Amino acid sequence: MTVGNMETAALFDAGKKGRGLRASRELRAGEVVFAEPSFSAVVFDSFATQVCHSCFRHQAKLHRCAQCKFAHYCDRTCQTACWDEHKKECGAIKKIGKAPNEHVRLAARVLWRIHKDTGIASDSQLISVDQLEDHVADLPEGDLKKLQTDVHNFQQYWSHGRKQHSADYISHIFGIIKCNGFTLSDQRGLQAVGVGLFPNLCLVNHDCWPNCTVVLNHGNQSALSSALHSQRRIEVRALEKIPEGEELTVSYVDFLDLSADRQKKLKEHFHFDCTCSHCSQHIKDDLMMAAAESKPSADKVKEVTDFSKECLEKIDKSRIQGDFHEVVKLCHECLGKQENVLADTHLYRLRVLSVASEVLSYMRSFSEAAGYARKMVEGYTKLYHPNNAQLGMAIMRAGVTHWHAGQIEAGHSLICKAYAILMVTHGPNHAMTRDLESMRTQTEVELKMFKQNEQEYHTMRDAALKKPVTSSS
Ligand SMILES: [Zn+2]
Ligand SMILES: [Zn+2]
Ligand SMILES: [Zn+2]
Ligand SMILES: [Zn+2]
Q1: Which portions of the chain are predicted below pLDDT 50?
Q2: Roughly what angle, to the nearest 10 degrees, separates helices 366-383 and 347-362?
Q3: Which ligand is located closest to the Cα atom of residue 160?
Q4: Of residues 282, 125, 24, the one with CA closest to residue 274
Q5: Burial of 234: CB neighbours in 10 Å, binned 0-12, 13-18, 19+
Q6: For residues 311 and 330, is the Cβ–Cβ distance under 8 A?
Q7: pLDDT tens for residues 362-421?
Q8: 454: Cβ–Cβ under 8 A, 6 or more apart, which residues?
Q9: pLDDT tens digit sequence for 303-334
Q10: What are residue 237's DSSP bridge partners?
Q11: Quick one: which ligand is closest to 231's CA?
Q12: Pick from 299, 289, 304, 365: nearest CA to 334
């Protein structure tokens, strides 16, 4: 059922995949195909006091809602912008004395909104929220139990005059959230801090090698009007030139997995069998499992692969325990064994390189971290779509690491590369793109200085690194 209109895309029957969206005209790389505010969204329980419930920015100091003492906001502007969404919730939390979990809170917000706007929040919304798929029938036993508990808690919490809903209808809403909810990250894209429902986005089908990407824009906090101030929205952006009539796709999973593993994840979380060209033709699987060019024996490759797998588990464990020296020790050992046995694009090698560069950079061993980051980026570049957002962010981190290591030429060049990718995937107004832009300018100045007087440059860098790290918000 079509209920709205969009200039760039239209609903169509995508065969086995069900509904889909396709381009109504040719789209340029980096073009915003559509932007959409959330129908409803909530901050995760674990971030309830650290992230603004209106704009989803991570903030050091938040103000608490005086009524329910649960919701937190940057300031009055964010609170005012969000009051319509929070009003009913505020009363319900006060009534039962405690906020229920994030699933129940989101389901309640969705239902309050449905009652207010009958499931259609804007003219360009193509589908009513309660017509999305729920896949409740596909849920395994354990998930079904949890769902029943949530439904029970929901019934204690939710009220709307004398209106009541059947347990089936409430389960339907929970199911919709479970398989269509989009995870929201903070303004630096570093942490998943909440979840929201975006009806049009739900119509964009998956492809492991998609032609679009989706990004959360947190709104413009320096805007004077409170409406713009915290108008968080997702943007679906074209990753490449898309001809008129072509289906629009985004990826629900990271590409860096063997096709069989991606298919397994998609089946488990989204209940479908991926038949995209990269899965059905196993494209790049060979690179992700490749042996080094020196042609080691099959036995040797198997031995090192098994060793790496075990080692990665140990690395994860030590990392969770915060034992970073152990992590570094394990990474060194593992990378040593992999040398001349596994190729630079092997998944296990890339995973170890990623952890090693991140942890060493955290421990301020920037030179060593930079070396690993560079190898990681080289491998990623051979595997990812050239405009993949994960690739862009990895290159950004590698650039910053090189910069901190005093390798200004490599640092500047990586930062420029990352900037070019994020201009497509995140757009010029996103907080991360703006960060990159200022880093690009700063590294350019430093590069000039470096070329004029290397000695002076290093003295300046060393002094800068001794200062505590500051970050803008
Ligand atoms: Zn805010
Ligand atoms: Zn409140
Ligand atoms: Zn109703
Ligand atoms: Zn696939």
Answers
A1: 1-3, 470-473
A2: 150
A3: 3
A4: 282
A5: buried
A6: yes
A7: 999 999 999 999 999 999 999 999 999 999 999 999 999 999 999 999 999 999 999 999
A8: none
A9: 999 999 999 999 999 999 999 999 999 999 99
A10: 32, 213
A11: 1
A12: 304
What is the reported pLDDT for 130? Answer: 85
Give distance in angstroms: CA of 194 to centre of ligand 3: 25
Ligand 4: distance of its center to the CA of 13 in Å? 19
Digit-coded pLDDT (tens) for 198-215: 999 999 999 999 999 999
Query: From the CA of 79, which ligand is nearest?
Result: 1
Instruction: Note whether ipTM > 0.85 here.
Output: no
Q: Where does 275-365 have alpha helices with state H?
A: 277-280, 285-288, 298-320, 324-338, 347-362
Hunting for tokens 């918000």 — which residue is that?
A: 473
Burial category of 320 from C-beta neighbours within 10 Å (exposed 0-12, middle 13-18, buried 19 and up) = exposed
pLDDT value at residue 118: 73
pLDDT of residue 224: 54
Element (H, E) at 451: helix 431-452
3-state helix, strand, coil in the chain (%, to 5): 50, 10, 35
- Can you give the C-alpha Rg of the chain in angstroms? 24
How many other CB atoms sit within 10 Å of the CB of residue 93?
Answer: 22
Domains of the chain plus CATH, in order, are 9-252 (2.170.270.10), 284-363 (1.25.40.10), 384-473 (1.25.40.10)
Ligand 3 centroid, distance to 118 Cα (angstroms): 9
Closest C-alpha to 390, from 210, 261, 242, 220: 210
Q: Is residue 146 within 8 Å of residue 152, measured between CB atoms?
A: no
Where would I find the H helices in 97-203?
102-117, 141-157, 167-180
The sign of the torsion formed by the CA atoms of 144, 147, 153, 156 equals: negative
Q: How far is the CA of 204 from the centre of ligand 4 (A)?
A: 14
